[in-house]
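Chapter review: from sequence to fold.
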Amino acid sequence: MHPYRTHDCGALRRADVGRTVRLSGWVHRKRDHGSLLFVDLRDRYGLTQCVIDSSRSETFAVLDAARNETVLTITGECVERDTETVNPALPTGEVEVSIREIAVQGTAEPLPLQVNSDEDYGEEVRLRYRFLDLRRDKMQRNIALRSDIIASIRRRMIEQGFREFQTPILTAESPEGARDFLVPSRLHPGNFYALPQAPQQFKQLLMIAGFDRYFQIAPCFRDEDARADRSPGEFYQLDVEMAFVTQEDVFAAIEPVIGGLFREFTSFPVTESPFPRIAHGEAMLKYGTDKPDLRNPLVNVDATAPFADSDFRIFRRQIGEGAVVRAIPVPGGAAAPRSFFDRMISFAQENGAGGLAWIVFQEGAGKGPVARLLKESELDAIRSLAGLGDGDAVFFSCDARDAAERIAGLVRTRVCDELSLAEQDSFRFCWIVDYPMYEYDAERKRIDFSHNPFSMPQGGLEALETRDPLDVLAYQYDIVCNGVELSSGAIRNHEPATMIKAFEIAGYPASEVEARFGALHDAFRYGCPPHGGIAPGIDRIVMLLAGESNIREVTLFPMNQQAQDLMMGAPGEVSEKQLRELGIRLAKPS
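The token string follows.
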């Protein structure tokens, strides 16, 4: 007989009755019934009830002394449970093991958190004792799900003819939009490597090298603050690149992978291919965000025109100064109490708006303070634009375009939540396309890349040379599910002159581009194919499929909100000897 187990703790069934079996696992729970002592033994496969009576005094004493989470090897006979003690909730619930022998493999001290409980012990305790937290049933399911999802992704990519390659971890810094993690070089004092924010340049070089269809489950490192949908420090993505492709070719390759993945791991409805394509400008107008949750049926509209010459002087004056009006429909809003409208106004003000205007349509007329200042034709125009009927209401956000759309998007979401309008138990995907190539950074008073600096501008070099940079669109795209951005991607800029011009507009002279991206710029000069790619986030995909709202719940060993690994004690101080070897002297903050 094997020294540790003949079966795992989820394997025994009625057909095993009468066999001598051996199980190893953790003490999940004990129940003392006087002359009988029951123990639920657990491993990652399941749970088996084992029982011993007090006549086996020495063995009984060993089990009686074993705390929860002690590791035991139990040998005994598989017996059928009495009818009244069958547990239909367990796959092993028709049988139990009558214990003959017990070997203690690992004792457990008093526990800082209970594994057999769903009690929330808080972030600090859970992360400091992550090895215990990971034993809990929910975490076992989530981490196993993560493994299964990654295995499915690999299979689906390989079936489409992609090959997996591993790109370097120690590399050069890159302007990906976040801070780099820097690694000092011992052999080259004063010089630093950077951990990759993404394998961007390497995967483009793979296309130039002729490998055509690449993927990788890639670790990425960014020195940025923690968020619910991103762990501080590191995350993983399905990194993909393809040569000789258009934007639509990338979509056609990725939709079966992502859509198929969600259909494989959930019974909920999933958007069928092709996923909707929504231009960035359209998304901002209709949803107030480039990460729209399409389970929300509300669609905002441009209501600037009806107010432009109206007697509602506040809006008319703002429109004359360049403001726009965004209308947020409220189906059935006429039946809502006045407190609902007051809550929405307070919510908008808490998020930086001066307030919200509103109109109720009831008994064939517009009602409310604003309605009294509008002509019938203006009310009819609003009703038509927003698709409103009798009994509906509408909110209005008036401000500079970006601000008005942002508030309208927040109010749209809040109204949907308050009125419980969202579709439940579904996954709704879309592509956001036609991103602006550049944006104006008001803080630094300069034009900067709005998305990925390596993207191809729509119209190529000619567009960069002849158009206002803020009007240039790029072949950039995001895939969004239920309001969560799963991925960014782009058709790449593969022409040296276009690359130089694109960075020049963002304030990088040609000399700096050639210095910082020398390999990529050089490679463009030796026969570079058109290429593009995408990088869906593994952590966010697993988070959605696991029904979790925080990345921590689907990550093995996450850091806390302060980017600390409480279990391993990272980051930590290093010795003076190590610093001297690296040529580093610390300048500690005062």
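Two observations follow directly from the output. The chain has a mean pLDDT of 95. The longest strand covers residues 20-33.
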